[in-house]
Amino acid sequence: MKYTGRILIVDDERVVRDSLAAWLREDGHDCTTVGSGEEAVDRFVATDFDLCIVDLKMPRGIDGIETMLRIRRLRPDASVVIITAYATVDTAVSAMKQGAEDYIVKPFNPEDISAVAERIVTLRRLRARRSDGRQAGEVQRFFGMSSRNPRMLEVFDLVREVANLRSTVLIEAESGTGKEMIARAIHMAGRRKDGPYLQISCAALPDTLLESELFGYEKGAFTGATGRRPGKFELASGGTLLLDEIGDVGPKVQSDLLRVLQERRLFRLGGIEEVSIDVRFVAATNRPLAMAVREGRFREDLFYRLNVIRIVIPPLRDRLDDLELLIGDLLARLSQDTGRQVEGITDEAVERLRTHTWPGNVRELENALERALVSCRTDRIEARDFDFLWAPGGGGDGAWIAPNHLSLKEVESEVIRSVLRRTRGNVSEAASVLGIDRSTLYEKMRRYEIEKPDED
Ligand SMILES: Nc1ncnc2c1ncn2[C@@H]1O[C@H](COP(=O)(O)OP(=O)(O)OP(=O)(O)O)[C@@H](O)[C@H]1O
Ligand SMILES: [Mg+2]
User: Fold this and answer.
1) Is ligand 1 within 6 A of the CB of residue 180?
2) How far is CA 78 from CA 14, 71, 89, 199, in A?
3) pTM: predicted TM-score of the whole model, two decimal places
4) List of long-range contacts for 129-138, beta carbons under 8 Å, 24+ apart
5) Nearest in space to 305 (alpha carbons), one of 267, 255, 269
6) Ligand 1 close to Cβ of residue 179 (< 6 A)
7) How would you classify residue 144: left for phi > 0, otherwise alpha for psi between -120 and 50, otherwise beta?
8) Per-residue confidence of the chain (456 residues) as pLDDT tens digits?
9) Are 45 and 38 in contact (CB under 8 A)?
10) What is the torsional sign of CA 208, 214, 220, 221?
11) Ligand 1 centroid vs 190 CA: distance in angstroms?
């Protein structure tokens, strides 16, 4: 569907404004023409136009920029496009810095004008729909997430807009930003919410296993296939399937996936009868998929199939205006999970957390809060309860590498400490995680004076 709008055209040359109006009327827009900036401002007093196209240079009265500034004083969200001759493109660029939405260079190509008008009118319509009933800075709650951050709110809007489509969605975002939560929201916000929601981590499985998980198999398809088993594609029918870490699937699975996405039909492994599926696919990736395409690791045709709608979740460091909301939500959940209650967190502690770069995003924040919650000795979590975030070896996901520049030796000893903590002091397990043998690990622990943490 194409949106049409009310457009005001301002040019001192009658032929120019009339031909512009005639062209835009053919696109279905409602056009008004005037010959001077002053008249344009007058018209805006009575009518709220979707777009004002104004000539930069007009010999009498105020020029295009002044017209724009006056209109925007009247209607701060007015969209203005400046028409300019080649010689004055610099001025047009400065006009954009002062708030013009775009500029058109004379002599213009009517198709370009149509495109500019359509883009601006469409954006305004979508924006108007979104801001219906929304106050600036207002908090939105959305399937377990809360936000007042404009970029995050746009993500919520996009989820709502696409929830009822069957088009594939690609979620691109750093690790720990909430990709899974958004995938679930896509499912829950749409008509499929009563159907199954399934997910599969494509990175966790070798290709052959991934294939049998996705496609299912018939009895005798391979050694060990003692009966028929439906795969995730079939099990997710009527619902949604999240293909997590899609960038990591190998070439064979990529081409099979392409076929399923195109045809919505598949054969189980070892099967001869085709099965139809009705699945809404969501794919997620930590690294831009286009990069994997450029590096030749990911099929371009599959990329286009997946990238029908793309949702990019901003990293936590770019939405620190949500920090307090997130802390509130996470502490509520953590208090339930851990059984440890606190009254809250001091402002000083929040400010301290604001200075961290959060390479591990919301998951890192969650881990940091859990650690602080469990160790804090007061009614409120205090700034010092987060000291570990800045101490080498203490942070959440990878946090200890980013802010400090550690020597290789320090990094090695920190990795060992951290793995030992995670394996609760089990040296054999730690050695296997680190890919070295036990005696080497003991040797390194001696060298770095690492005590074995108490086993619990
Ligand atoms: N807006 C949010 N509000 C509350 N918790 C959140 C929010 N976003 C993420 N989380 C929590 O942070 C953790 C990471 O979220 P999630 O698993 O959705 O991220 P991800 O992007 O899929 O991470 P990865 O790339 O590591 O798989 C989860 O425990 C999740 O509950
Ligand atoms: Mg995930």
Assistant:
1) yes
2) 24, 7, 22, 44
3) 0.63
4) 130/154, 130/157
5) 255
6) yes
7) left
8) 568 899 999 999 999 999 999 999 999 999 999 999 999 999 988 888 999 999 998 888 999 999 999 998 888 788 999 988 766 667 777 787 788 887 887 877 788 788 888 878 877 777 676 666 566 678 999 999 999 999 999 999 989 988 988 889 999 999 999 999 999 999 999 999 999 999 999 988 888 899 999 999 999 888 888 889 999 999 999 999 999 999 999 999 999 999 999 899 999 999 999 999 999 999 999 988 888 888 899 998 899 889 878 899 999 999 999 999 999 999 999 998 888 888 899 999 999 999 998 999 999 999 999 999 988 889 999 999 999 888 765 444 443 333 445 567 777 888 888 888 878 888 888 888 788 888 889 888 988 888 877 654
9) no
10) negative
11) 21
176 in contact with ligand 1, CB cutoff 6 A: yes
Separation of alpha carbons 253 and 214, rounded Å = 10
Amino acid at 40: A
Task: Give every CB contact of residue 206 below 8 A, 6+ residues apart in sequence.
Answer: none
Q: What is the DSSP letter of 315?
A: P
For the chain, domains (ranges, CATH) are 6-131 (3.40.50.2300), 143-312 (3.40.50.300), 316-389 (1.10.8.60), 408-447 (1.10.10.60)
Q: Are strands 51-55 and 6-10 parallel, antiparallel or unpaired?
A: parallel
Ligand 1 contacts CB of residue 175 (under 6 A): yes
Q: How far is CA 172 from CA 166, 248, 384, in A?
A: 19, 14, 34
Please spell the DSSP secondary structure of 116-140, one letter per residue: HHHHHHHHHHHHHHHHTTPPTT--E
Residue 41 has which token pair? 């401002």
Please tell me the residue having the least CA distance from ligand 1 atom 23.
Answer: 176
Tokens 């929040």 belong to which residue?
Answer: 350
